[in-house]
């Protein structure tokens, strides 16, 4: 049977698609048969795609309509990938932007304190409502070398403008929990650093510093005063500069990257502000083709604005798939359970010599901050996080249903454990109008065998202690994060296992 040229071309493509083995071949010893120019099989003059039929005059010259389709699709693909590639940087930028816009920060010396715990009105990605946060937004382009002077007993980290790890604060940082002065130097800084500081050369101008306080920090006005007196951020050249401490709890803030075309306006802001060296030339080249380039005005026409909007929607949709329906073989922490890793392999997002880009999206779409101590393998040090989107039957968790989660006896933690419910749309605290966190610090009822039953549902199930109930929103789904503060051997070696969610009704 004689094949048409398009079908013959596809047959060859599919034949080679099955060859997927990496080979360290010595081409000088090739046994392949000789080829000549006639063996080259060009793409056909008519190509069917998911964005329409493409026609090429004279065998390869795209006609006017096909040219328009191709550039629309090329720009859409590059913008969609840019949405995901730059999401970590966008996430940090929108946090810093929200703190100037929504909390009224005027200098990097101003400090935010979630003194009455985080609320759903502050939509930080999977933030918790059981610890007191303090944070500062730093810009080395404005202030030059900047000092973060922290008190003893902190636990936190600093990340650069690409949301990459710079350092830990506190017990897992160089101060070892004793407090100290951290000096962040701007890109290209050449002078010698002064003595008496923990010194870090930042590849970016903007930095976000976040930490948690425990014990004597307290909450409310006490926590605000505690941090105001002890946490100091100031330019190296102005050691006496002080800012204000703001109780941010319940004030409301939008920290999330946009999910429409406005994302790209903010992306241009980042590119204009930060040094070009922060991002690869390849990524910057992709942006240049869609009109985002350092030193040049950003002026998308109507066509590009529509493409940017569609690209943002596609980027969100793909990020949701990567996060909530992962195809990663190693995603489950325990193979027989539905608890999933938030860091698939490591906190650097590298694997087998390449960037682990889906693992990066999986973390950054649902969480903020990067530190190796968020994936602790040292008993009693750092933290560990697992997330769950599905019940025992692998169905998504839906707010109009009732579930039971049994936490086995003796959770392997040095500090405490907690499970918190989140909104899958915002990946932030679930705004159900009720309690959304249960943990060892909140005194739930304990079963005779030492286990704890946690119930999830829009209504309190009959006979269930209210301290063991997380209220859900019947109009939407939810997911949870289980936190291990100071994970111990049972978690690290996987001998202690969380149960799956069981559907009650």
Describe the protein in words.
It is a single chain. With 505 residues, the protein is of the alpha+beta class. The protein is built from ten helices and 25 strands. It has helices at residues 5-17, 64-85, 87-101, 140-143, 221-230, 262-273, 281-289, 302-324, 357-366, 489-492; strands at 46-49, 52-57, 61-62, 111-113, 132-139, 146-150, 155-160, 165-170, 180-185, 198-201, 206-213, 232-235, 245-247, 340-341, 350-351, 354-355, 383-388, 403-407, 413-423, 428-429, 437-439, 452-457, 469-471, 479-487, 502-503. Strands 8-7-11-5-4-13 form a six-stranded mixed β-sheet, with helices on both faces. Residues 120-235 form the DUF1254 domain. This is DUF1254 domain-containing protein. It comes from Rubinisphaera italica.
How do the strands and helices of this protein lay out in sequence?
Layout: H1 5-17, E1 46-49, E2 52-57, E3 61-62, H2 64-85, H3 87-101, E4 111-113, E5 132-139, H4 140-143, E6 146-150, E7 155-160, E8 165-170, E9 180-185, E10 198-201, E11 206-213, H5 221-230, E12 232-235, E13 245-247, H6 262-273, H7 281-289, H8 302-324, E14 340-341, E15 350-351, E16 354-355, H9 357-366, E17 383-388, E18 403-407, E19 413-423, E20 428-429, E21 437-439, E22 452-457, E23 469-471, E24 479-487, H10 489-492, E25 502-503
Parallel strand pairs: 4-13, 9-10, 22-23
Antiparallel strand pairs: 1-2, 2-3, 4-5, 5-11, 6-9, 6-12, 7-8, 7-11, 14-17, 15-16, 17-24, 18-22, 18-25, 19-20, 19-21, 19-24
Helix pairs in contact: 2-7, 2-8, 3-6, 8-9
Keywords: Signal
Domain DUF1214: 383-488
Signal peptide: 1-22
């Amino acid at each position: 049977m004689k094949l048409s040229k398009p079908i013959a071309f596809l047959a060859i493509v599919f034949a080679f698609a099955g060859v997927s083995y990496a080979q360290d071949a010595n081409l000088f010893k090739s046994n392949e048969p000789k080829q000549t120019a006639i063996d080259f099989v060009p793409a056909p003059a008519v190509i069917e795609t998911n964005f329409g039929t493409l026609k090429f005059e004279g065998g390869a010259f795209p006609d006017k309509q096909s040219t328009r389709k191709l550039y629309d699709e090329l720009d859409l693909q590059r913008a969609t990938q840019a949405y995901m590639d730059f999401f970590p940087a966008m996430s940090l930028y929108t946090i810093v932007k929200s703190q100037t816009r929504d909390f009224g920060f005027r200098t990097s010396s101003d400090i935010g304190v979630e003194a009455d715990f985080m609320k759903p009105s502050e939509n930080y990605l999977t933030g918790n409502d059981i610890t007191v946060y303090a944070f500062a937004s730093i810009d080395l382009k404005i202030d030059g070398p900047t000092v973060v002077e922290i008190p003893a007993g902190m636990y936190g980290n600093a990340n650069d403008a690409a949301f990459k790890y710079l350092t830990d604060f506190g017990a897992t940082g160089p101060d070892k929990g004793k407090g100290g002065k951290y000096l962040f130097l701007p890109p290209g800084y050449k002078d010698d650093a002064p003595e008496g500081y923990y010194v870090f050369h930042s590849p970016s101008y903007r930095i976000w510093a976040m930490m948690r306080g425990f014990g004597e920090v307290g909450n409310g006005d006490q926590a605000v005063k505690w941090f105001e007196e002890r946490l100091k951020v100031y330019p190296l050249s102005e050691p006496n500069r002080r800012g204000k401490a703001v109780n941010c709890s319940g004030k409301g803030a939008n920290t999330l990257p946009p999910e429409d075309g406005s994302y790209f306006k903010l992306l241009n802001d980042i590119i204009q502000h930060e040094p070009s060296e922060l991002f690869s030339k390849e990524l910057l080249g992709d942006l240049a083709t869609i009109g985002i380039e350092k030193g040049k005005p950003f002026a998308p026409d109507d066509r590009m604005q529509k493409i940017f909007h569609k690209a943002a929607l596609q980027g969100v949709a793909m990020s949701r798939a990567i996060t909530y329906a992962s195809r990663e073989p190693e995603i489950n922490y325990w193979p027989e359970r539905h608890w999933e890793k938030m860091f698939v392999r490591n906190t650097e997002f590298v694997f087998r010599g390449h960037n682990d880009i889906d693992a990066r999206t999986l973390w950054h779409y649902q969480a903020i901050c990067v530190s190796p101590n968020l994936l602790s393998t040292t008993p009693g040090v750092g933290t560990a996080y697992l997330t769950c989107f599905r019940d025992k039957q692998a169905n998504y968790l839906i707010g109009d249903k009732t579930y039971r989660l049994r936490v086995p006896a003796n959770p392997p933690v040095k500090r405490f454990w907690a499970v918190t419910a989140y909104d899958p749309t915002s990946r932030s605290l679930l705004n159900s109008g009720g309690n959304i966190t249960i943990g060892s610090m909140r005194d739930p009822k304990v079963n005779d065998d030492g286990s704890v039953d946690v119930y999830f549902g829009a209504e309190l199930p009959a006979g269930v202690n209210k301290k063991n109930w997380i209220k859900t929103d019947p109009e939407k789904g939810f997911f949870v994060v289980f936190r291990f503060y100071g994970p111990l051997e049972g978690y690290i070696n996987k001998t202690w296992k969380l149960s799956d969610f069981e559907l009650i009704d």
